[in-house]
Amino acid sequence: MSSTISGPAAAALNSLTPSQLKFIQMLPKAELHAHLNGSIPISVLQELAQEFAHLSDSGLTSDAIEEGIAKLRNGVVLDEIHDFFNLFPAIYALTSNPSNLRRATRAVLEQFLDGENPQCAYLELRSTPRETPEMNRRQYVQAILDEVERYPPSKTNLIVSLDRKMTGDVLRECVEIAIGLKAEGKRVVGIDLCGDPTAGDMGVLEEHLSRARAAGLGITLHIAETPANTAAETIQLLSYTPDRLGHATFLNDEAKSIVLDKKMCIEICLTSNLLCKTVSSLDAHHIRYYLQNDHPIVICTDDTLPFRTSLVGEYALLLAASPLGLGLTQDEVKRVAEMGIGATFQSRLNPPDAVRGTGQARKVETKARGG
Ligand code: IMP
Ligand code: ZN
Protein backbone atom coordinates (compact mmCIF):
# COMPACT_ATOMS: atom_id res chain seq x y z
CA MET A 1 0.00 0.00 0.00
CA SER A 2 1.98 3.00 -1.19
CA SER A 3 1.09 6.57 -0.41
CA THR A 4 1.81 9.82 -2.21
CA ILE A 5 4.90 11.55 -0.87
CA SER A 6 5.40 15.20 -1.70
CA GLY A 7 6.83 18.39 -0.23
CA PRO A 8 9.71 18.47 2.29
CA ALA A 9 9.85 14.69 2.85
CA ALA A 10 9.99 13.99 -0.90
CA ALA A 11 12.75 16.56 -1.40
CA ALA A 12 14.78 15.03 1.43
CA LEU A 13 14.22 11.49 0.16
CA ASN A 14 15.27 12.44 -3.38
CA SER A 15 18.53 13.91 -2.08
CA LEU A 16 19.66 10.67 -0.40
CA THR A 17 22.09 8.20 -1.95
CA PRO A 18 20.76 4.64 -2.50
CA SER A 19 22.79 3.40 0.47
CA GLN A 20 21.44 6.16 2.74
CA LEU A 21 17.90 5.25 1.70
CA LYS A 22 18.58 1.57 2.37
CA PHE A 23 19.97 2.50 5.79
CA ILE A 24 16.73 4.31 6.73
CA GLN A 25 14.52 1.58 5.33
CA MET A 26 16.34 -1.13 7.27
CA LEU A 27 16.45 0.80 10.55
CA PRO A 28 13.94 -0.61 13.09
CA LYS A 29 11.56 2.33 13.64
CA ALA A 30 8.53 2.91 15.84
CA GLU A 31 5.61 5.08 14.68
CA LEU A 32 3.91 6.30 17.84
CA HIS A 33 1.94 9.35 16.65
CA ALA A 34 -0.34 8.49 13.73
CA HIS A 35 -4.02 9.52 13.68
CA LEU A 36 -6.11 6.89 11.91
CA ASN A 37 -8.42 9.21 9.97
CA GLY A 38 -5.45 11.35 8.97
CA SER A 39 -3.47 8.37 7.67
CA ILE A 40 -5.84 6.70 5.19
CA PRO A 41 -4.19 6.14 1.77
CA ILE A 42 -5.80 8.49 -0.78
CA SER A 43 -6.60 5.55 -3.11
CA VAL A 44 -8.72 3.90 -0.41
CA LEU A 45 -10.46 7.18 0.40
CA GLN A 46 -11.28 7.61 -3.28
CA GLU A 47 -12.78 4.11 -3.43
CA LEU A 48 -14.92 4.86 -0.40
CA ALA A 49 -15.96 8.20 -1.93
CA GLN A 50 -17.05 6.52 -5.17
CA GLU A 51 -19.18 4.01 -3.27
CA PHE A 52 -20.62 6.86 -1.22
CA ALA A 53 -21.61 8.70 -4.40
CA HIS A 54 -23.45 5.60 -5.69
CA LEU A 55 -25.28 5.02 -2.45
CA SER A 56 -26.00 8.57 -1.43
CA ASP A 57 -29.25 10.24 -2.46
CA SER A 58 -27.83 13.59 -1.36
CA GLY A 59 -25.98 15.13 -4.32
CA LEU A 60 -24.87 18.03 -2.19
CA THR A 61 -23.13 15.88 0.40
CA SER A 62 -21.41 13.86 -2.31
CA ASP A 63 -20.17 17.07 -3.90
CA ALA A 64 -18.79 18.30 -0.61
CA ILE A 65 -17.00 15.00 -0.13
CA GLU A 66 -15.63 15.02 -3.66
CA GLU A 67 -14.32 18.52 -3.07
CA GLY A 68 -12.64 17.43 0.19
CA ILE A 69 -11.02 14.39 -1.46
CA ALA A 70 -9.83 16.47 -4.43
CA LYS A 71 -8.14 18.86 -2.02
CA LEU A 72 -6.35 16.00 -0.30
CA ARG A 73 -5.36 14.44 -3.64
CA ASN A 74 -3.88 17.64 -5.01
CA GLY A 75 -2.06 18.56 -1.81
CA VAL A 76 -3.38 20.96 0.77
CA VAL A 77 -1.88 24.35 1.43
CA LEU A 78 -2.54 25.44 4.99
CA ASP A 79 -2.28 29.06 6.00
CA GLU A 80 -2.47 28.09 9.64
CA ILE A 81 -3.28 25.10 11.80
CA HIS A 82 -7.06 25.68 11.92
CA ASP A 83 -7.30 25.13 8.15
CA PHE A 84 -6.11 21.63 8.87
CA PHE A 85 -9.10 20.64 11.02
CA ASN A 86 -11.53 21.60 8.23
CA LEU A 87 -10.21 18.66 6.20
CA PHE A 88 -11.74 16.02 8.46
CA PRO A 89 -15.55 16.27 7.87
CA ALA A 90 -15.19 14.80 4.35
CA ILE A 91 -13.05 11.95 5.66
CA TYR A 92 -15.40 11.31 8.58
CA ALA A 93 -18.40 11.00 6.24
CA LEU A 94 -16.60 8.05 4.62
CA THR A 95 -15.59 6.22 7.81
CA SER A 96 -18.89 6.48 9.64
CA ASN A 97 -19.94 2.82 9.55
CA PRO A 98 -18.07 -0.20 10.98
CA SER A 99 -17.39 -1.77 7.60
CA ASN A 100 -15.80 1.33 6.04
CA LEU A 101 -13.92 2.07 9.25
CA ARG A 102 -12.47 -1.44 9.19
CA ARG A 103 -11.45 -1.04 5.54
CA ALA A 104 -9.76 2.26 6.29
CA THR A 105 -8.02 0.81 9.36
CA ARG A 106 -6.80 -2.21 7.43
CA ALA A 107 -5.33 0.05 4.75
CA VAL A 108 -3.59 2.23 7.35
CA LEU A 109 -2.08 -0.81 9.07
CA GLU A 110 -0.91 -2.21 5.73
CA GLN A 111 0.59 1.15 4.80
CA PHE A 112 2.74 1.18 7.93
CA LEU A 113 3.45 -2.49 8.56
CA ASP A 114 3.28 -4.51 5.34
CA GLY A 115 5.13 -4.76 2.04
CA GLU A 116 8.71 -5.44 1.09
CA ASN A 117 10.10 -2.47 3.04
CA PRO A 118 7.65 -1.77 5.88
CA GLN A 119 7.60 1.83 7.08
CA CYS A 120 8.02 0.74 10.67
CA ALA A 121 8.67 -2.22 12.93
CA TYR A 122 5.99 -1.17 15.42
CA LEU A 123 2.94 1.12 15.26
CA GLU A 124 0.84 2.67 18.01
CA LEU A 125 -2.14 3.88 16.01
CA ARG A 126 -4.52 6.37 17.60
CA SER A 127 -8.13 7.33 16.95
CA THR A 128 -10.94 9.32 18.55
CA PRO A 129 -14.09 7.29 19.38
CA ARG A 130 -16.89 8.71 17.25
CA GLU A 131 -20.61 8.17 17.64
CA THR A 132 -22.46 7.98 14.31
CA PRO A 133 -25.96 6.83 13.29
CA GLU A 134 -24.39 3.45 12.51
CA MET A 135 -22.17 2.81 15.55
CA ASN A 136 -21.65 3.90 19.10
CA ARG A 137 -18.24 4.82 20.51
CA ARG A 138 -17.51 1.38 21.87
CA GLN A 139 -18.39 -0.21 18.51
CA TYR A 140 -16.12 2.36 16.84
CA VAL A 141 -13.13 1.31 18.96
CA GLN A 142 -14.02 -2.38 18.62
CA ALA A 143 -14.10 -2.12 14.81
CA ILE A 144 -10.56 -0.69 14.82
CA LEU A 145 -9.34 -3.29 17.32
CA ASP A 146 -10.69 -6.09 15.13
CA GLU A 147 -8.18 -4.99 12.49
CA VAL A 148 -5.33 -4.13 14.89
CA GLU A 149 -5.60 -7.57 16.49
CA ARG A 150 -5.00 -9.34 13.20
CA TYR A 151 -1.36 -8.45 13.88
CA PRO A 152 0.66 -9.58 16.91
CA PRO A 153 1.03 -7.16 19.87
CA SER A 154 4.72 -6.79 19.06
CA LYS A 155 3.65 -5.06 15.80
CA THR A 156 0.77 -2.77 16.67
CA ASN A 157 -1.60 -1.59 19.40
CA LEU A 158 -4.21 1.14 19.82
CA ILE A 159 -4.27 4.46 21.64
CA VAL A 160 -7.72 5.95 22.32
CA SER A 161 -7.75 9.70 21.59
CA LEU A 162 -9.76 12.21 23.59
CA ASP A 163 -10.75 15.37 21.73
CA ARG A 164 -10.24 18.70 23.48
CA LYS A 165 -13.86 19.60 22.67
CA MET A 166 -15.36 16.57 24.45
CA THR A 167 -17.65 17.19 27.40
CA GLY A 168 -16.91 15.61 30.78
CA ASP A 169 -19.49 12.87 30.09
CA VAL A 170 -17.95 11.92 26.77
CA LEU A 171 -14.44 11.98 28.23
CA ARG A 172 -15.63 9.60 30.96
CA GLU A 173 -17.29 7.33 28.41
CA CYS A 174 -14.18 7.16 26.20
CA VAL A 175 -11.84 6.44 29.12
CA GLU A 176 -14.25 3.77 30.41
CA ILE A 177 -14.32 2.16 26.97
CA ALA A 178 -10.51 2.11 26.89
CA ILE A 179 -10.20 0.72 30.43
CA GLY A 180 -12.97 -1.84 29.88
CA LEU A 181 -11.49 -3.14 26.64
CA LYS A 182 -8.01 -3.34 28.16
CA ALA A 183 -9.44 -5.30 31.11
CA GLU A 184 -10.94 -7.75 28.57
CA GLY A 185 -7.46 -8.31 27.14
CA LYS A 186 -8.01 -6.09 24.10
CA ARG A 187 -5.06 -4.19 22.72
CA VAL A 188 -5.65 -0.65 23.99
CA VAL A 189 -2.35 0.61 25.42
CA GLY A 190 -2.85 4.33 25.95
CA ILE A 191 -4.88 7.53 25.97
CA ASP A 192 -4.14 10.62 23.84
CA LEU A 193 -5.42 14.18 23.96
CA CYS A 194 -5.80 15.83 20.56
CA GLY A 195 -8.06 18.09 18.49
CA ASP A 196 -8.21 21.83 17.89
CA PRO A 197 -5.33 23.07 20.09
CA THR A 198 -7.18 26.22 21.09
CA ALA A 199 -10.42 24.51 22.18
CA GLY A 200 -11.58 23.18 25.51
CA ASP A 201 -10.92 23.49 29.21
CA MET A 202 -8.05 21.25 30.26
CA GLY A 203 -9.06 21.29 33.95
CA VAL A 204 -11.73 18.64 33.32
CA LEU A 205 -9.14 16.12 32.19
CA GLU A 206 -7.41 15.34 35.46
CA GLU A 207 -9.82 12.76 36.92
CA HIS A 208 -10.12 10.94 33.59
CA LEU A 209 -6.38 10.74 33.01
CA SER A 210 -5.81 9.55 36.59
CA ARG A 211 -8.28 6.72 36.09
CA ALA A 212 -6.65 5.76 32.81
CA ARG A 213 -3.21 5.75 34.41
CA ALA A 214 -4.41 3.67 37.39
CA ALA A 215 -5.72 1.11 34.88
CA GLY A 216 -2.24 0.79 33.36
CA LEU A 217 -2.77 2.89 30.25
CA GLY A 218 0.02 5.14 28.96
CA ILE A 219 -0.73 8.85 28.56
CA THR A 220 0.29 11.08 25.67
CA LEU A 221 -0.93 14.66 25.27
CA HIS A 222 -0.76 17.08 22.34
CA ILE A 223 0.72 20.06 24.13
CA ALA A 224 1.89 23.62 23.36
CA GLU A 225 1.17 23.02 19.69
CA THR A 226 0.59 26.70 18.84
CA PRO A 227 1.71 30.06 20.25
CA ALA A 228 -1.90 30.53 21.44
CA ASN A 229 -1.50 27.71 23.97
CA THR A 230 -0.86 29.48 27.27
CA ALA A 231 2.00 28.71 29.62
CA ALA A 232 -0.58 28.05 32.37
CA GLU A 233 -2.34 25.43 30.24
CA THR A 234 0.96 23.76 29.40
CA ILE A 235 1.99 23.55 33.07
CA GLN A 236 -1.47 22.18 33.93
CA LEU A 237 -1.18 19.44 31.29
CA LEU A 238 2.35 18.58 32.47
CA SER A 239 1.02 18.23 36.04
CA TYR A 240 -0.98 15.22 34.80
CA THR A 241 2.45 13.51 34.37
CA PRO A 242 2.07 12.30 30.78
CA ASP A 243 4.55 9.68 29.53
CA ARG A 244 4.83 11.28 26.09
CA LEU A 245 4.04 14.66 24.53
CA GLY A 246 2.80 15.45 21.02
CA HIS A 247 4.66 18.37 19.38
CA ALA A 248 5.61 20.39 22.53
CA THR A 249 6.61 23.20 20.20
CA PHE A 250 6.09 26.25 22.40
CA LEU A 251 7.45 25.35 25.84
CA ASN A 252 8.80 28.06 28.13
CA ASP A 253 11.82 27.46 30.37
CA GLU A 254 9.74 26.21 33.29
CA ALA A 255 7.93 23.69 31.09
CA LYS A 256 11.19 22.61 29.45
CA SER A 257 12.78 21.89 32.80
CA ILE A 258 9.80 19.71 33.87
CA VAL A 259 9.90 17.82 30.56
CA LEU A 260 13.65 17.24 30.83
CA ASP A 261 13.49 16.28 34.49
CA LYS A 262 10.64 13.77 34.01
CA LYS A 263 12.16 12.51 30.73
CA MET A 264 8.81 12.82 28.93
CA CYS A 265 9.36 11.57 25.38
CA ILE A 266 8.56 14.13 22.68
CA GLU A 267 6.70 12.90 19.58
CA ILE A 268 8.28 14.94 16.77
CA CYS A 269 6.32 15.43 13.54
CA LEU A 270 8.58 17.51 11.27
CA THR A 271 6.47 17.79 8.09
CA SER A 272 3.29 18.36 10.08
CA ASN A 273 4.86 21.29 11.91
CA LEU A 274 6.27 22.79 8.70
CA LEU A 275 3.00 22.50 6.74
CA CYS A 276 0.85 23.77 9.62
CA LYS A 277 3.35 26.64 9.88
CA THR A 278 3.90 26.23 13.61
CA VAL A 279 7.63 25.94 12.83
CA SER A 280 9.20 28.17 10.18
CA SER A 281 12.04 25.89 9.03
CA LEU A 282 13.87 22.70 9.91
CA ASP A 283 16.67 24.84 11.19
CA ALA A 284 14.35 26.50 13.71
CA HIS A 285 12.70 23.22 14.78
CA HIS A 286 12.63 22.38 18.48
CA ILE A 287 13.99 18.89 17.69
CA ARG A 288 17.44 20.52 17.84
CA TYR A 289 16.93 21.45 21.48
CA TYR A 290 16.00 17.89 22.44
CA LEU A 291 18.88 16.41 20.44
CA GLN A 292 21.33 18.76 22.15
CA ASN A 293 19.98 17.65 25.53
CA ASP A 294 20.01 13.95 24.57
CA HIS A 295 16.34 13.92 25.53
CA PRO A 296 14.05 11.04 24.42
CA ILE A 297 12.21 11.76 21.16
CA VAL A 298 10.36 9.69 18.62
CA ILE A 299 9.98 10.63 14.94
CA CYS A 300 6.39 10.35 13.70
CA THR A 301 4.17 11.27 10.74
CA ASP A 302 1.03 12.64 12.51
CA ASP A 303 -1.22 12.49 9.39
CA THR A 304 0.31 10.95 6.26
CA LEU A 305 -2.76 11.78 4.14
CA PRO A 306 -2.88 15.60 4.26
CA PHE A 307 0.85 15.99 4.90
CA ARG A 308 1.76 13.58 2.08
CA THR A 309 4.61 12.04 4.01
CA SER A 310 5.74 8.65 5.29
CA LEU A 311 7.84 7.51 8.22
CA VAL A 312 10.79 6.83 5.90
CA GLY A 313 10.29 10.37 4.55
CA GLU A 314 10.42 11.81 8.07
CA TYR A 315 13.68 9.93 8.73
CA ALA A 316 15.01 11.27 5.43
CA LEU A 317 14.49 14.74 6.89
CA LEU A 318 16.89 13.78 9.70
CA LEU A 319 19.60 12.41 7.44
CA ALA A 320 19.47 14.72 4.41
CA ALA A 321 22.04 17.52 4.32
CA SER A 322 20.88 21.04 5.21
CA PRO A 323 18.76 22.83 4.01
CA LEU A 324 16.70 19.81 2.84
CA GLY A 325 17.27 17.99 6.13
CA LEU A 326 18.87 18.29 9.54
CA GLY A 327 22.12 16.69 8.37
CA LEU A 328 22.41 14.16 11.21
CA THR A 329 24.96 11.36 10.90
CA GLN A 330 23.78 7.78 10.45
CA ASP A 331 24.84 7.02 14.04
CA GLU A 332 22.73 9.92 15.29
CA VAL A 333 19.72 8.79 13.23
CA LYS A 334 20.15 5.26 14.58
CA ARG A 335 20.17 6.60 18.13
CA VAL A 336 16.96 8.56 17.44
CA ALA A 337 15.28 5.41 16.09
CA GLU A 338 16.36 3.47 19.20
CA MET A 339 14.85 6.16 21.43
CA GLY A 340 11.55 5.72 19.59
CA ILE A 341 11.58 1.97 20.05
CA GLY A 342 12.25 2.54 23.77
CA ALA A 343 9.27 4.91 24.14
CA THR A 344 6.41 2.61 23.16
CA PHE A 345 3.61 2.06 25.64
CA GLN A 346 3.83 -1.60 24.74
CA SER A 347 7.44 -1.86 25.99
CA ARG A 348 6.94 0.38 29.04
CA LEU A 349 3.62 -0.81 30.33
CA ASN A 350 3.15 -4.34 29.04
CA PRO A 351 5.35 -7.40 28.95
CA PRO A 352 7.05 -7.55 25.53
CA ASP A 353 5.45 -9.82 22.98
CA ALA A 354 2.74 -10.87 25.41
CA VAL A 355 -0.33 -12.29 23.74
CA ARG A 356 -3.09 -11.81 26.26
CA GLY A 357 -6.14 -14.01 25.89
CA THR A 358 -6.74 -16.94 23.63
CA GLY A 359 -9.20 -15.04 21.38
CA GLN A 360 -6.40 -12.67 20.49
CA ALA A 361 -3.95 -15.50 19.91
CA ARG A 362 -6.42 -17.04 17.46
CA LYS A 363 -6.70 -13.81 15.48
CA VAL A 364 -2.92 -13.54 15.24
CA GLU A 365 -2.76 -17.10 13.90
CA THR A 366 -5.41 -16.22 11.32
CA LYS A 367 -3.31 -13.31 10.07
CA ALA A 368 -0.20 -15.50 9.95
CA ARG A 369 -2.09 -17.91 7.72
CA GLY A 370 -3.02 -15.03 5.46
CA GLY A 371 -6.71 -15.08 6.54
P1 IMP B 1 -9.03 10.31 14.27
O1 IMP B 1 -8.82 10.53 15.74
O2 IMP B 1 -8.69 8.91 13.82
O3 IMP B 1 -10.43 10.69 13.85
O4 IMP B 1 -7.97 11.24 13.49
C1 IMP B 1 -8.23 12.56 13.09
C2 IMP B 1 -8.32 13.50 14.26
O5 IMP B 1 -7.06 13.56 14.92
C3 IMP B 1 -8.60 14.96 13.88
O6 IMP B 1 -9.97 15.22 13.76
C4 IMP B 1 -8.00 15.73 15.05
O7 IMP B 1 -8.89 15.78 16.13
C5 IMP B 1 -6.85 14.85 15.48
N1 IMP B 1 -5.55 15.36 14.96
C6 IMP B 1 -4.88 14.97 13.88
N2 IMP B 1 -3.72 15.65 13.76
C7 IMP B 1 -3.67 16.50 14.81
C8 IMP B 1 -2.72 17.46 15.26
O8 IMP B 1 -1.65 17.69 14.68
N3 IMP B 1 -3.06 18.17 16.38
C9 IMP B 1 -4.20 17.93 17.07
N4 IMP B 1 -5.08 17.02 16.70
C10 IMP B 1 -4.84 16.31 15.58
ZN1 ZN C 1 -1.23 14.74 16.17
Automatic annotation (TrEMBL):
Domain Adenosine deaminase: 28-346
Keywords assigned by UniProt, alphabetized: Hydrolase, Metal-binding, Nucleotide metabolism, Zinc
SUPFAM superfamilies: Metallo-dependent hydrolases
Entry-linked InterPro entries: A_deaminase_dom, Ado/ade_deaminase, Metal_Hydrolase
Parts of the chain that traverse the membrane: none
Reactions catalysed, as given in the entry: N(6)-methyl-AMP + H2O + H(+) = IMP + methylamine
Pfam families: A_deaminase
Keyword set includes Zinc: yes
Composition bias, Basic and acidic residues: 362-371
Domain of life according to the entry: Eukaryota
GO biological process, one term: adenosine catabolic process
Family classification: Belongs to the metallo-dependent hydrolases superfamily. Adenosine and AMP deaminases family.
Entry protein name: Metallo-dependent hydrolase
Upper classification of the organism: Eukaryota, Fungi, Dikarya, Basidiomycota, Agaricomycotina
